[in-house]
Every structure is written in C-alpha cells, then in structure tokens.
Amino acid sequence: MRRLLSYFSLVVSALILLAGCTISYKFNGSALNYDIYKTINVGEFPIRAALVYAPLQQTFENKLLNTITRQTRLQEVNGTSDLEMTGEITGYSLSPQAVGTDAYATETRLTITVKVKYTDHINSANDVDQTFSAYRQFDSSLMLTDVQDGLCEEICDELVDLIFNATLGNW
User: Fold this and answer.
1) Are 97 and 137 in contact (CB under 8 A)?
2) From CA 6, how far away is CA 10, in angstroms rounded?
3) Dihedral, CA of residue 116, residue 169, residue 150 and residue 61, to nearest 10
4) What's the pLDDT band for 6 if we cut at 50, 70, 90?
5) DSSP letter (8 states) at residue 74
6) Are strands 105-120 and 83-99 parallel, antiparallel or unpaired?
7) Chain centroid to CA 149: how far?
8) What value does the CA radius of gyration of the chain take, rounded to a whole number of Å?
9) Which of 13, 15, 23, 30 has a 20 to 30 A CA-CA distance from 45?
10) Burial of 170 (0-12, 13-18, 19+ CB in 10 A)
11) Which residues pair with 87 in a beta bridge?
12) C-alpha distances in angstroms, 152 versus 46, 140, 157?
C-alpha cells in the first residue's frame, strides 16, 4: 500500500510539473509578431513582360492575397499600412528544352518571373527587393493554349510560396 501511495504521489508530482510547461508551435508559416504588425497593403502586379498572358495578373494577385489571408492574421488595407508588397510580372517566356532526332524541340519550358518589393514600415531591416522565377515544362506536341491555364496556376502557386517564405514567413 505504501508503495502504491508513493507511486501515486510521484505521478501526481510529474503531472503538476508538466502542467506548468507549454510547447508552442506555429503551423501557419508566418513569423510575425501580431502585437506589432496588424495591416498589409498588397498592390497590383502589372505585367511588364514582352509576352503577355492577360489572365496571369489576376491569377497571381488572387493567389498571393489568398495565401496572406489564410496564413496570417494581417488585415489587407489600401493606403497606409505596417507592411507593403508591390511589384510586377517581368517575365513570361517560352524556351525549347529537349531536342528530338528530327531537330525539333520535344519539350518546352514556360517561365514566369516576378519582381517583388516588400517594405516593412516598422523595421526596415526586413525589407526585401527581389526577383522570383518558377517554371514548368510541357510536351512540345501540345498547344500552349491547351496547357497554359494549368501551368500558370502551378507556377503561380510556387511563386507565391517563394515570395511568402522570403517576406512574411521570414525564413
């Protein structure tokens, strides 16, 4: 009986000690202090590339705003804000990647490039002015018009992840 009582008190003591410890994880990917940062202004990202695919701007901007909304508690505002993100789509290009025995390309690469200026109005050490690129390859026997929407979706997803991690994710 004494042994059981001793074991019970040991378990209760361990539980009391563990109750005072807390482990905290952030699963949203953001490294922001929300006591300091409350607002963000995300500007338009106009297409300044030589080759223009009109739906690209809207697709990219929507994905960027959706990611910021889902992964942070920042309020998106127009005008004065704690954080600001602006930029432009500077590249939309096709290039042959693999050549077959008939000297024609068998694969084509679609590359999208985005220049981003991220301004932290509270701590300028966090400012970022960087260019991001991502690409996807597709079979050259396919028409670009048939695969363009899907490729742009995938590339924009990757670009948004890269941009988020370099700015708000503070990796």
Assistant:
1) yes
2) 6
3) -50
4) low
5) P
6) antiparallel
7) 19
8) 24
9) 30
10) middle
11) 116
12) 15, 16, 8
Phi-psi region of 59 (alpha: psi -120 to 50; beta: other; left: phi over 0): alpha
- Note the pLDDT tens digit of each residue in 62-102: 999 999 999 999 999 999 999 999 999 999 999 999 888 88
Q: 96-154, pLDDT tens digit by residue?
A: 998 888 878 899 999 999 999 999 999 999 999 999 999 999 999 999 999 999 999 99
124 HSE (CA, 13 A, CB side): 0
10 Å CB burial of residue 74 (0-12, 13-18, 19+) is buried
Task: Dig out the tokens for 10 from the structure.
Answer: 């040991």
The answer to whether residues 47 and 57 touch, using CB atoms and an 8 Å cutoff, is: yes
The amino acid at 2: R
